[in-house]
From TrEMBL:
This is ABC transporter permease. Residues 141-285 form the MacB-like periplasmic core domain. Keywords: Cell membrane, Membrane, Transmembrane, Transmembrane helix. Pfam families: FtsX (PF02687), MacB_PCD (PF12704). It comes from Jeotgalibacillus marinus. The keyword Membrane applies. The chain crosses the membrane at residues 20-38, 321-341, 361-380, 448-471. It is a multi-pass membrane protein. Residues 322-475 form the ABC3 transporter permease C-terminal domain. InterPro entries: ABC3_permease_C (IPR003838), MacB_PCD (IPR025857), Macrolide_Exporter_MacB (IPR050250).
């Protein structure tokens, strides 16, 4: 194996050309390693996005499909379903993939022993408790809106941060069948109400009322959208929204006991948005609901898709980096080796003249570039770590900027597993999970092994192809031309 010894001596003697090759090969390896690091960072960021953002699926009546079926069958609107059966919503809530769920009802009610906040510039004299409506108008439109929930902290207003709990506690599963409520801060101040006080709600459609205990007071930044028209129902004012357990809302809306409580909708919060289709399939399989014209499972993963767009672009970019750098590197090194071979024709002619075999000459060139590759891989393994870390930090910083409002989750997402009543904070991380503010990207043995394979392939391809010209060499011709 004297050609290996010659390769070592050649690399040592040609310091300038060897250093140039080492530099070029190192740049290639660092760029390839950076591409692999970007892929790793993109994959981890994708996992982080799925865990932090999730998605939600809403179970509700498909009113559009129902109306079309009624028109086609000649039926009447009274034939439409009135809501989602509680038992069916609970069946679906037992499936995997969930980090939380919530049940909702909506009703309007009368303020029997307190004053609702008046909207607009209405200055008419009011009767009784000061509401601007009287008689049948008031009974139909109501004074306050009731939002029946299973968990108040995962209602849309609290999830978005528009509403914040100021005092007391959130409504949770433990409050089912209890007559409790959460009221808005302005409504509480207008009526001098505090946590622990009671208020009486009257039904706008039935001759019954419900006394509820205030367990929480919240504030909201939502505004009343009148759509440019006056005379807006005061029950639509966000300040007049009262949260109650959905069981309490059902008590007020009907004076009769029903065998099957009906919900307006049920929302299921999916841990991993990639499991949406699987969840839908399993939900339809276990449910007795008709999803072909009566009920609908609609998914909302817009935040996840918005987050995944740039991450997928980064992953695609990293793949292109690896391919382009590998191909370009092989071409550049191939040209360098080809030039080196042309400069060393006399050396090869002498070796061939004294009986050296052609494959050993090719082996010498391969050995020389492999020596360069090994040195370049060693340098890249050190410098590549810094590049990979910088790329990982930049990628995480971009992601945190985009999802800074979405990294917290309601406590009720852990409530179905841990039990217990949430505290006064509206948005807390899931138990045992902390917000990730640092993503440490390290060059793993797998990454370095893949780099080594790619580097060796580049070395072999860039050397073997130019070295094939050696097979055509004749020592007599080489030496004659040299003379």
């Amino acid at each position: 194996m004297n050609f290996i010894k010659r390769a070592l001596l050649s690399v040592k003697e040609r310091k300038g050309k060897s250093l140039l090759q080492i530099f070029i090969f190192t740049v290639i390896c660092v760029l390839v390693l950076s591409g692999l690091a970007i892929q790793s960072a993109a994959e981890k960021s994708s996992e982080l996005a799925r865990e932090s953002l999730g998605a939600d699926i809403t179970l509700q009546i498909d009113r559009q499909a129902m109306m079309e079926n009624i028109r086609e069958s000649g039926g009447s609107p009274q034939d439409m379903e009135t809501g989602v059966p509680l038992s069916e919503a609970e069946k679906i809530a037992s499936l995997d993939y969930l980090k939380g769920y919530n049940f909702f009802t909506s009703e309007v009610a009368l303020a029997n022993d307190f004053e609702a906040i008046s909207t607009g510039d209405d200055t008419e004299e009011t009767e009784g408790n000061g509401n601007p409506f009287s008689g049948n108008d008031r009974m139909v439109q109501g004074d306050v809106s009731l939002r029946g929930v299973l968990y108040s902290d995962s209602s849309a207003s609290f999830m978005s941060g528009d509403s914040v709990l100021e005092d007391g506690e959130h409504i949770t599963e433990e409050d089912l069948d209890e007559n409790v409520a959460m009221i808005e801060k302005n409504l509480a101040e207008l009526n001098n109400l505090e946590v622990g006080d009671t208020l009486t709600l009257g039904s706008a459609v039935e001759e019954n009322s419900l006394e509820v205990e205030i367990i929480g007071i919240y504030s909201t930044t939502e505004t009343l959208d009148t759509g440019g028209f006056g005379g807006q129902n005061i029950a639509a004012d966000p300040y007049n929204r009262i949260y109650v357990p959905y069981t309490a809302s059902s008590k007020l809306s009907s004076s009769e006991e029903t065998s099957e409580p009906m919900l307006e909708s049920a929302i299921y919060y999916i841990q991993d948005p990639s499991k949406i289709d699987e969840f839908k399939e399993e939900a339809k399989a276990i449910s007795a609901l008709n999803f072909d014209g009566e009920y609908l499972l609609s998914a909302d993963d817009q935040a996840y898709q918005q987050m995944m767009g740039p991450i997928e672009n980064v992953a695609s970019f990293s793949n292109n980096v690896v391919y382009l750098v590998a191909i370009a590197g092989a071409i550049i090194l191939g040209l360098i080796v080809m030039m080196a071979i042309r400069e060393r024709k006399y050396e090869m002619g002498v070796l061939l003249a004294i009986g050296e075999q052609k494959w050993k000459l090719i082996g010498q060139f391969v050995a020389e570039i492999l020596i360069v590759a090994i040195l370049a891989l060693g340098i890249a393994s050190v410098s590549g770590q810094m590049v990979a870390g910088a790329i990982g930090d930049q990628l995480l910083e971009q992601q945190l900027t985009q999802e800074q409002e979405l990294t917290t989750q309601p406590e009720s997402f852990g409530g179905r597993f841990s039990g217990g009543r949430p505290g006064s904070s509206t948005n807390q991380p899931v138990d045992g999970v902390e917000a990730i503010d640092e993503l440490e990207i390290k060059i793993t043995p797998q990454d370095f092994g893949l780099l080594a394979v790619i580097g060796m392939l580049i070395a072999l391809i860039s050397t073997l192809i130019p070295s094939l010209s050696v097979l055509r060499l004749q020592p007599k011709t080489i030496l004659t031309k040299q003379e």
